């Protein structure tokens, strides 16, 4: 008798990244090791000189700069990105340090299929410079959050969080470094759960099957 292993189809992932791309690389490594059932289709940046573009090119991933200045509106820029994502059959979009807010034009077709990584324990400190906000407030616990993107700023359903202690002598830089280590872990874990069809969203809450 022949047993055929019922292996699930790999998910297609595309990344939106504005800068360095350490989260992208961390996930790419996990995929390379076979720990996440996915393939990366493309990396798209809104910044021509984003360091991520070299990194992704170096590992053979299609890397594209789409200049927002060439479009008459945010929506028109997003439609250009959507064209790529539809044509390469992207299942999941990962915003990993993407510094633009997405409009409903982008979010609607990818509802609960866009994951963001944010360097704070949401709902505390949404928006820019989250680590600086945490230091300014003197919080004793900080961390990071992986969530699905909705129309608000860092308000979408939370998939996973990781917490770390803030020490009295921590600076924005030292805190950011410690948080980043946790970001890499929870982003990869969240993507893995998505790729194994283990995430569902009900009443704006994420449930893990
Ligand atoms: C991370 O801190 C992420 O949480 C935030 O932007 C930073 C991106 O870092 N949204 P990298 O480009 O992944 O290194």
Give an overview of the whole structure.
Helix content is 33%, strand content 24%. The protein has 6 helices and 9 strands; from the N terminus they run βαβαβαβαβαββαββ. It has a 7-stranded mixed sheet. It has a two-stranded antiparallel ribbon with strand order 8-9. Helix 5 packs across helix 6. 35% of the residues are buried. The structure holds 5-O-phosphono-beta-D-ribofuranosylamine. 5-O-phosphono-beta-D-ribofuranosylamine binds next to helix 1, strand 5 and helix 6.
Structural class: alpha/beta
Total count of helical runs of at least 4 residues = 6
Strand content: 15-25%
Count all strands and give the number.
9
Radius of gyration of CA atoms, rounded to a whole number: 17 Å
Would you list the SSEs in sequence order as H and E? Answer: EHEHEHEHEHEEHEE
Largest sheet: 7 strands, mixed
The low-confidence runs, each spanning 5 or more residues with pLDDT under 50, are none
Average pLDDT figure: 96
Strand order of the largest sheet: 3-2-1-4-5-6-7
- Residue share in helices? 25-40%
Give the end-to-end Cα distance, rounded to a whole number of Å.
32 Å
C-alpha geometry: globular
Distinct compounds present:
5-O-phosphono-beta-D-ribofuranosylamine
């Amino acid at each position: 008798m022949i047993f055929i292993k019922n292996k699930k189809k790999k998910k297609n992932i595309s990344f939106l990244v504005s800068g360095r791309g350490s989260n992208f690389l961390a996930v790419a490594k996990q995929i390379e090791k076979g720990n996440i059932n996915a393939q990366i289709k493309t990396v798209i940046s809104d910044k021509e000189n984003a360091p991520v573009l070299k990194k992704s090119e170096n590992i053979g991933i299609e890397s594209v700069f789409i200049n927002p200045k060439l479009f008459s509106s945010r929506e028109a820029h997003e439609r250009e990105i959507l064209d790529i994502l539809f044509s390469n059959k992207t299942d999941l979009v990962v915003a990993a340090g993407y510094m633009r807010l997405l409009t409903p034009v982008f979010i609607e077709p990818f509802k609960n299929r866009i994951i963001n990584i944010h360097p704070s324990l949401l709902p505390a400190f949404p928006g820019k410079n989250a680590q600086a906000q945490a230091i300014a407030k003197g919080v004793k616990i900080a961390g990071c959050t992986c969530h699905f993107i909705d129309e608000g700023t860092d308000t979408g359903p939370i998939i996973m969080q990781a917490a770390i202690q803030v020490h009295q002598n921590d600076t924005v830089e030292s805190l950011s470094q410690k948080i980043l280590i946790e970001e890499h872990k929870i982003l990869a874990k969240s993507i893995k759960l998505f790729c194994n069809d283990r995430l569902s969203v009900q009443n704006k809450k994420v449930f893990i099957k």
